[in-house]
Amino acid sequence: MHKLLIILLFLIGLVKTISAQDLHFSQFYANPLYLAPSFAGGAGEPRAVVNFRDQWPKIPGNFITYSFSFDYYLEPFKSGFGLYANSENAGQGKLVTTNIGLAYSYKINITNNLVFQPGLAAYYHDRFTDYSRITFADQYYNGQYIGATSDVLPEDRVRHADFTMSGLFYHKKFWVGYNIDHLMNLSPVLRNDFRYLNIRASLFGGYKYSLSKRIRDKNNEYLQAAFQYYYQSYTHQLNIGGYYNRLPFIVGVWYRGIPLVNKYFSADALTFLGGLKYYSFTFSYSYDMTLGKLISQTGGSHEISIIYTFQAPGRVKKKYKMIPCPEI
Q1: How many angstroms separate the CA atoms of 246 and 215, rounded?
Q2: How far apart are CA 319 and CA 262, in angstroms?
Q3: Distance of CA 31 to the CA centre of its chain
Q4: Phi and psi (nearest 5°) for 11?
């Protein structure tokens, strides 16, 4: 129980200092609208995505995250539209964060082979802290519970609108993009309001290399190298990884948490991924192996993603240049 208390106190401390923490997924590309709204319509066909993450299962009151999204590309308007909902449950309902939003992207052909796809998302943010289920150090004396805490606690529910903007450049062999979240924090009035999360900026990209020598099989066996960097408050993090694809199988590995100029050194985890593409379905699973002193304490993290791409009747796929990103 003391581990749970420490984690909850840490989260409340985050509320007071950097507003809160964002939801986290190891399978970045299996949750495209959360990675960047520029991915709205990125499959060229209607697409539904479901994600589930169980973080640190050995610690009581672990972190459970759910996500759902649906997006579609309208070719006559060169536009992608998406709807998404994310929810994180920490401490078995003691801290619940929910985001529900709409995403939009627009496709701009710079050359015959290079595309720029800007994106924008607007979402509703809801964060609830159930203080009635949390106890604090000053509520105990000589091991006995003595009553309510004397600490002045923030409000238990935070609700507001927020915005995200992004951009994605891609070619059939490479991609690079950026995402800037929590744009409400740009307001001088809201910048010091603990209810609004600090701006989170990320940069991601990668390269796709075909291993097949036969033209008709060029997309059936290939390697992908990728990276993701993000900055929020005083935290910098760089993730690097790669994938091997020999359809219908996909495997990958990431190293998450390479420190750059963080105030505290924090190597985070190795992430191992595996996926199977079966007709319109893509199933994937990943495991985060925690590094450092907590390697045997947390139980790592488990993540499952399911992607279903609808095949629209009579749609001409050749007109849509596919983004070469991984699917998990």
Answers
A1: 15
A2: 45
A3: 6
A4: -65, -40
* Alpha-carbon distance values, 168 to 32, 40, 105 (Å): 12, 11, 10
Q: How many CB atoms lie within 10 A of CB 323?
A: 21
Cα–Cα distance between 66 and 23 in angstroms, integer? 10
CATH topology of domain 2-319: Porin (2.40.160)
Q: Which two tokens stand for residue 97?
A: 């964060």
- Spatial contact of 60 and 1, defined as CB atoms under 8 Å apart: yes
Residue pair 89/56 in contact (Cβ under 8 Å)? The answer is: no
Q: How far apart are CA 196 and CA 194, in angstroms?
A: 5
- Judged by average pLDDT, the poorest of 72-86, 120-134, 221-235 is 120-134
At residue 11, the pLDDT reads: 40
User: 143 exposed, middle or buried (CB, 10 Å; 0-12, 13-18, 19+)?
Assistant: exposed
**3-class secondary structure for 283-313?**
EEEEEEEECHHHCCCCCCEEEEEEEEECCCC
Separation between Cα atoms, residue 239 and residue 58, nearest integer Å: 24
Taking residues 12-18, report their average pLDDT: 38
Q: Rounded to an integer, what distance in angstroms lies between the CA atom of residue 31 and that of residue 8?
A: 27
The C-alpha atoms of residue 81 and residue 72 are separated, in whole angstroms, by 5
Locate tokens 């507003």: which residue?
Answer: 19
Examine the pLDDT at 156 and tell me if it is beyond 60. yes
Does residue 61 contact residue 96 with C-beta atoms inside 8 Å?
no
pLDDT tens profile 50-76: 999 998 888 776 789 999 999 999 999
Tens digit of each residue's pLDDT (9 = 90 or more) over 275-322: 999 989 999 999 999 887 666 677 889 999 999 999 765 554 555 578
Using alpha carbons, select from 241, 236, 226 the residue that is nearest to residue 288.
Answer: 241
**Residue linked to tokens 């004396």:** 141
Q: What is the dihedral of CA 7, 11, 12, 17, to 10 degrees?
A: 130
Whole-number pLDDT of residue 297: 75
